[in-house]
Structures are given as structure tokens and as C-alpha cells.
Amino acid sequence: MSISVKDIFKLDSLKKLNLLAGEAGLEKGIEWIYVAECFENPLDGIKWLQGGEIIFITGVGIKNNMDMLIKLIEGISEKNGSGLIVNIGPYINEVSEEVIKIADKLELPLFTLPWEVKLVEVSREISNAIVLSRIEENSLTHFLSNILFGDGELEGDAIEKAAYFGYNLAGECCICVIDIDGFERYLKLKKLEDEISISRIKITFRKIVQDILEKHALKVPIIDKDDAVILFNRSEENCMKRLQNALKEIQEVIKRRIDGLSVSVGIGNPYRDLKMMKQSLNEAELAIDSAKCQGLDDTITQYKDIGIYGLLFNIKNKNVLENYYLDALGSISNSDDKNKDGNLLKILETYLNENCSITVTAEKLFLHRNTLKYKIKKIEELLECDLHNFDDCMKIKIALYINKILK
């Protein structure tokens, strides 16, 4: 966690800070500070930026060369810098309108600071704010990790501790997991292997989540887990309605801002006791898994809506599931391996999904009605069942669900 660019306005040493351009980028996080006076030509220092820095210049290497200042701004933006502070004085006495327009276009916050303000004081205060923010984040992460992943009892009053960090977890709460769809597949597709690029995507992902939650007035604790973020949310109707709206916007913004990326969301059941948040987390993850079993991405799924999957996922012994599947559909699976007439398993699944309607199933599979009737009869013979019998259909339907889980 870092402080945001807008947070530096609160610092005593930056009371005289003046924002010229790039207001749209004030929510960017500041990971560290960088003084671009270490090189005779400030442009030489851009290559060392890692992203997230706020850059200071006195203009000693630029003077009043606005073309060079524009190149500096463009370079900072390309390296994902968070902003630029120009010390107005003997080297740069003002910033041109052209520079301001470029910074606005790139959404890069551009500030001026009077010469009499000492950069050493400013850099020290920003550094302290970043360090304190990280200490607080580590404490919060430890607290949340203990709730979600700890083995022992929660120490003290967890609700009071949450309030200390500024979060209201009184009443019923649930866990929401926002997970990047097929992240490993996405990295291979984009040929991204270096840790910096991968980390940058995750940081952008989390920042989008944080910004949109804040926009919808949802002050909720967040914790990272692999390529997902986990958040706690109160389950009262108003909070859940705002959460649903925020989640839809998060999905839209991520698809727009990060090319080729989408996220799926799982929401667990609500519980009053924070000790039950582990259960809600497990339910949220299973809700996402149920969507994956159906080949779906970019979904929002509540655990209470996943039906039979909720029961099947909680059968930990996979042998039980495999044996059930083989008993119910083994003969048809074996037949499909040798069958020249088409995929009987797919025909069976479509037929059941369409409530055993020959007409609708034939249309969906582009089969003649008589051909479909022949195949349905063959399936009944192989499975020794009657597809007009509810119990037989239920047994097969469950086996089809199991097949998706096992895959």
C-alpha cells in the first residue's frame, strides 16, 4: 500500500504546493520519491524509474527549456511515474500552457512549489508518510490474515481492532473474492515473464478495485492473495447493493484499462461472527469455481446461488465423485471413445438441459428429429435407464455436474 498523490496536500511541508495539471491522476499511488537532478541531463534519469515515483526537479538541467520539460513529462508517463513537482525559482520561473496541456492529456499530476520550500524537508516528510502507510498496511494485513487463515483463536475483540483501522465490521459480514480470470494463460499470451511487469499488472488491478470501492462509498478492508483480492463487506442491504454496482464497474474498467484481462467474483454467505469469515471465504472461492466448471469468465456469483455445486465441492474425497460418475455415465464415456455417430455425452447433456425436448435439442445440435430419437434410445440402452424417469434423470444430471468438477 502506498499513499496517493492527493495525500501529499495534507503534509505540512507542502502547504504551498500548487496543482497545475493532471487532476485526473491524483488517485495514483506514490511508491517512493525521485529527485531528477543526479544527471546533467534530467532525461537520462528516466530510465531508472520503476513506476510509482513522484519526481522532483529544480530545473538546473532544464533551465526554461519547455521542450525538454515536455519530453520529461512524456518519459515519466511512459514509465508509470505518479507525478512531477517543479521547484519554481532561478532555473524555471514558470510552466508554459503547452506543458500544462500535455500533462493534462497524459493524466500526470504536475505541481509547482516555491523555491523557498526546501526539497530535503519535502522528501523527508513524503518518505515518512510512505513508511508509516506501509507499517499500517502490514499491521492490517496481519490482522486480516489471522481472521481468514489463522489456526488459533482471534485475539481480543476483532470488531474493535477493525474499528481501530477505520473499518466497521459490526453485524453480519461476508467475504468477496475478485479473481483474475486465467492469469497464467494471460501472461503467456502477452509473453510477460519478468516480475516487474507482473507486479505492475497486479498493482493496477488492486488500484482499480480500491478506487471504485471508494467511489461507491465502500470503506472495506482488502487483502491480496495470489492473483486475487479479498475484501470484507457488511451484509446489510444498502452495502450489498453498492457492492454489486461497484463490482460491475470494476469488471468494466479492468477490461477497458488492461487489454485482454477480465475478473470473476465470488461472494460467500454472511455471518455475524468474524471467526466464520474463513467459511465465507471458502464459499466465495467455491462460487468462482462453479462458474469455471461451466466455462464462464467475467462473472459475479454468490455462493447461495450455486446449487448442487455447493454440495459436490464439499465432498473432499475425489474417489467418491469419480466412482459415482463412472457408475452413472462410464458406459457412455467409453462408447464415446469408440463411437462414430457423435458425442453421446454432449447430446445427453443438451437433452437434459432442454428439459428432454426433442424439438429444441435437435435444433440446438443441428440434428434431424429422427436421428436424435435414435441416439437418445441408444443412450438409454447403454446406461440402462429411462430418460422419462425423474430419478434416472437426476442421477445422470448429478454425474454430469461431477464430470465438470473433475475436469
TrEMBL record:
The keyword Coiled coil applies. InterPro entries: CdaR-like_regulators, CdaR_GGDEF, GGDEF_dom, PucR_C-HTH_dom, PucR_C-HTH_sf, PucR_dom. Keywords: Coiled coil. Residues 171-304 form the GGDEF domain. PROSITE patterns: GGDEF. Residues 233-294 form a coiled coil. Belongs to the CdaR family. This is Regulator of polyketide synthase expression. It comes from Clostridium saccharobutylicum DSM 13864.
